[in-house]
Design brief:
Structural class: alpha/beta
Number of helices: 10
Order of helices and strands: EHEHHHHHHEEHEEEHEH
Shape: globular
Largest sheet: 8 strands, mixed
């Protein structure tokens, strides 16, 4: 199975699905926020695990896999533990100093806002050249969250980017890739973590480029709940965000978007942000529950 999948709203990849869940990237802050938000919806009687398509990118891949394994409340508890064990949280979030090669890769990543293949290849080359931990170390670390065993659900789809070709890759149950390997690739932030082997490709974080949510993968579904770090409000959305959101709606999908009320770039990878992010997400989930339920249930 070729995991490279071009971005296309015309393809209507989500056609035939009733409920879809799109979980975007955004560091350890957004992991905690999504966990808080989704557990609040679950407490309100919304079966978010019943999504027929779950798309997870970077932070969203972690939350999506745990959700598909019915372990979201366990992750909520583990987030509490991370606040008491800062060394573990720092290890998982890669907080700390960087080598010069890491800083270069991070800089290239941060300044790349398009999905032009040449630009993505540039990021990929920098990621491959960065001095980071061994790929196997990262794989073992993510297994703490993703667990071991078979693919958790046919609904689960995880995005990553090919470092050599710049292609967007989508991993699902047909790809013969373990959940931990898929999550390690999707969360391999250039400069922080090493690219990961996925089939015959070396892949990096799925949030590299113009999109950290990959809305085309749910296009055509009846309803999509989209959790995004940056949001889709006019004051903060990019031109690509606006075009993608409109294209998703034009595909016939009813969309509900939720974003954190506030955050800073510094908080994204800071373990100390976990309690604030989790509580913020929970409060917003409780406030949104009735609106989401009107479309979901």
């Amino acid at each position: 199975m070729d995991i490279a999948l071009p971005t296309s709203f015309d393809a209507r990849y989500g056609h035939g699905y009733d409920r879809s869940l799109c979980l975007g990237g955004g560091g350890i802050f957004f992991v905690a926020w999504q966990v808080g938000y989704l557990t609040a919806l679950m407490d309100a009687g919304i079966d978010v695990r019943g999504a027929q398509r779950i798309v997870g990118t970077s932070a969203g891949s972690m939350v999506g896999i745990v959700l598909a394994r019915d372990g979201l409340r366990r992750l909520h508890t583990e987030l509490e533990a991370m606040t008491r064990l800062p060394q573990l949280a720092a290890h998982l979030s890669a907080s700390g100093g960087m080598h010069p090669s890491q800083a270069r890769a991070w800089s290239v990543f941060e300044t790349t806002t398009t999905s032009d293949p040449e630009q993505l290849q540039r990021v990929g080359h920098a990621a491959l050249a960065a001095q980071t931990v061994e790929p196997e170390t990262m794989h073992r670390n993510v297994e703490i969250i993703a667990g071991v065993g078979d693919w958790p659900s046919e609904a689960m789809h995880i995005t990553c980017m090919d470092t050599f070709s710049g292609e967007r890759c989508v991993i699902d149950h047909r790809a013969a890739v373990t959940p931990a390997a898929a999550m390690a690739a999707s969360t391999a932030l250039p400069g922080m973590f090493p690219p990961q082997q996925v089939q015959d490709r070396k892949c990096m974080d799925g949030g590299v480029g113009a999109s950290a949510v990959h809305l085309d993968l749910v296009a055509g579904s009846r309803f999509a709940l989209v959790l995004s770090l940056r949001g889709f409000e006019p004051t903060g959305m990019t031109k690509q965000d606006a075009e993608d959101l409109q294209a998703l709606k034009d595909s016939g999908t009813t969309v509900f978007t939720a974003v954190p009320e506030s955050f800073t770039d510094k908080e994204m990878m800071d373990p100390k942000s976990i309690p604030t992010a989790r509580d913020m997400g929970r409060a917003q989930g409780m406030a949104d529950a009735s609106a989401v339920a009107a479309h979901w249930n």
